[in-house]
Structures are given as C-alpha cells and as structure tokens.
Amino acid sequence: xxxxxxxxxxxxxxxxxxxxxxxxxxxxxxxxxxxxxxxxxxxxxxxxxxxxxxxxxxxxxxxxxxxxxxxxxxxxxxxxxxxxxxxxxxxxxxxxxxxxxxxxxxxxxxxxxxxxxxxxxxxxxxxxxxxxxxxxxxxxxxxxxxxxxxxxxxxxxxxxxxxxxxxxxxxxxxxxxxxxxxxxxxxxxxxxxxxxxxxxxxxxxxxxxxxxxxxxxxxxxxxxxxxxxxxxxxxxxxxxxxxxxxxxxxxxxxxxxxxxxxxxxxxxxx
Length: 270
Ligand SMILES: C[S@@+](CC[C@H](N)C(=O)[O-])C[C@H]1O[C@@H](n2cnc3c(N)ncnc32)[C@H](O)[C@@H]1O
Description:
Distance between the termini: 42 Å
Shape: globular
CATH architecture of the largest domain: 3-Layer(aba) Sandwich
Helix content: 40-55%
Number of helices: 11
Number of strands: 7
Bound molecules: S-adenosylmethionine
CATH superfamily of the largest domain: Vaccinia Virus protein VP39
Strand order of the largest sheet: 3-2-1-4-5-7-6
Largest sheet: 7 strands, mixed
Number of domains: 2
CATH class of the largest domain: Alpha Beta
C-alpha cells in the first residue's frame, strides 16, 4: 500500500532536523521514508531507519562539522592556478574532511596521472557521487579549458565544490542528485564513479549495472575501497574484483585494472 504523504512528510521533517541530514537531497529522503512506511514501520522506527541508511551511504564519510565558513573565507585570497602550492595545500586540507578523499591522499600524486595520462588532456569530466573529489583537480591531467560536472546528495558540501569551481574558473554544473533515481544527462569524455557502487547498492541492489550502461561517457573510471572505514581489508579486494567482473560480463568494453594502497580501480573504455 502506498504510504500516506502527510506521514512521509513528517518523517522527512524529523529526519532533516538532524544536523547531518539537513542538507541531504530531499527526494532521496522522501523515497527512503516512503519505503520504510511501506515496510510497516511506525514513524519513530522509520526516522531511525532512514537516518541509519543515510549514514551508511554518505554520513559515515563526512565529518559532522566541516569548517565551511573558514574555507569560504580563505578561498578568495588564494591563487586560482591549479599548479600553485598554496591552492594545492588548501585542497589537500579540505579533502581531509571526507573519508573517501582522505584515504586517497597518499596515492594522489600518482592516482589520476597513472590511470588517465593516455587520455590526456581530458576535455570533460562527469564526477558522480563526487564527495570532495573535485578538489583533486590539481592532480588530474585536464585540459586548461576542460568542463567538470559534479554531483552528490549533500547540498552543503556541493556549495564548497561550487565555490572552488568558480574560483578556478572551471566551467560545468555542480548539482544535487540521487543516482538511484536518475542518471545525469551531461555527456562527458570521462566519468568518475569512485568508491560509490557499494554505497549505492545499499539503496538499490540493481543500480550498478544500470549506471554502467547509462552513464553518458566514453570512458568510465570505477573504483572500490580495499579497506573498510575502520581500516580492515576483510577480503574486500577479492570480493569487489569478482563483483566488478560480474557487472561487466559479456560487455564489449576495453577494461584496464589498477591497484593502489587503498583503492582498486578499473578504467572502462567504450
Ligand atoms: C565513498 S564516498 C565516495 C566519494 C568520492 N566519489 C570519492 O571517491 O572520493 C560515496 C559518496 O556517494 C555519495 N552518495 C551516496 N548515495 C548517493 C546517491 N544516492 N546519489 C548520489 N550520491 C550518493 C555520498 O554522499 C558520498 O559522497
């Protein structure tokens, strides 16, 4: 039975009273609330279940309070050149505040360079479920006039990404989006789906195959974590590698594999 819309709205409102849930893409919160009610949960249980799901897919990676005010104050005084050490230092500090980019920092000097150099200079990027990864642009082999689109479910985090894009005068859209409900239609030479498939599969088990088929890009860089947020590996490399091969079985795509200290990556070209 479809959930009562007033009840759904009440659950959404209650979920979004929490500081870390306030900025999450509303359509996603609505959908999760309706699904919990449809499963027969009462309002209190539904609020708890929705928050728990949002924590698993995104909140666990973010620090509760990132110093957005300080970043907005610092950014205008920084040079705009991506090769400038002061701008790079700002990016490195900011990326520490999202677990996913923090884990990549050690490999950052080689990660994009190793994988993407044969495609360079890259003219357009679609960074899906981006987190703070757009701040890694100084380490990507992009054309100076490249277009960079980025999306995620956190509006407040995207504000910083948008301010950064504007500061470095990078063209492209930065937008809030639930990838389990829509595939962004911005065509690009290269799309990133970095360490995100396991999060999305907690919302929709079938989503990965669908996205791999639908993302409008010639090349797709997909990656998986090889350690949990707590630092344990628990066979993750083998499991995600097997899962990826299941997802691309039967596709006539060229696939290259890369392994870094915290991340298993595949470049799909089609
Ligand atoms: C493990 S992090 C990866 C972040 C970034 N791609 C990286 O590798 O640094 C997963 C990201 O997926 C985002 N996310 C979770 N569910 C999403 C959804 N339904 N649609 C879009 N983004 C989502 C989270 O907010 C989080 O930033």
